[in-house]
């Protein structure tokens, strides 16, 4: 009993110590690879919508209704004060590590979210067509800041 209590305490302390250290570059790189190759599905799913101006613009509208709170209207965190503070931080969707995903993987991320990060699942909130059009918008993001800032507080 004594021993196991001490062991548990020791483990708890060791875990606490672990938590206090930010993940190393290596750990983060491994996590990113696992995410890219294992967690995120849909790799070979094709976008049924061509990148016409109308489809991209519809994607932008859906994005500015559901995603802008965390990603900004431009997908580059413009006007999102907490983006850097989230763990992991909200990435700019123009970043190479995001653009390297296939269309199908981006669609999968939107539909399922990324557990346990702050990226929520849109399944049941957005329909499939909206999700595919949002993928088109992610491929055609405007220059950072060009869409202005969203009104996060709303009109009262
Ligand atoms: C509540 C805040 C929030 C909302 C709303 C949100 N996201 Fe995210 N998003 C995040 C966070 C936090 C991350 C970083 C997650 C990670 O790297 O694990 C993220 C990451 C992403 C990524 C990159 C994933 C990666 O592996 O690098 C994409 C693409 C994305 N979001 C698209 C969207 C789209 C499209 C919408 C709207 C349908 C949306 N997000 C709505 C918070 C949000």
TrEMBL record:
Record-annotated membrane-spanning stretches: none
Keyword set includes Iron: yes
Residue span, Cytochrome c domain: 54-142
SUPFAM superfamilies assigned to the protein according to its UniProt record, in alphabetical order: Cytochrome c
Keyword Metal-binding: yes
Keyword terms: Heme, Iron, Metal-binding, Signal
Domain of life: Bacteria
Position of the signal peptide: 1-19
UniProt-recorded name of the protein: Cytochrome c domain-containing protein
Organism: Anaeromyxobacter oryzae
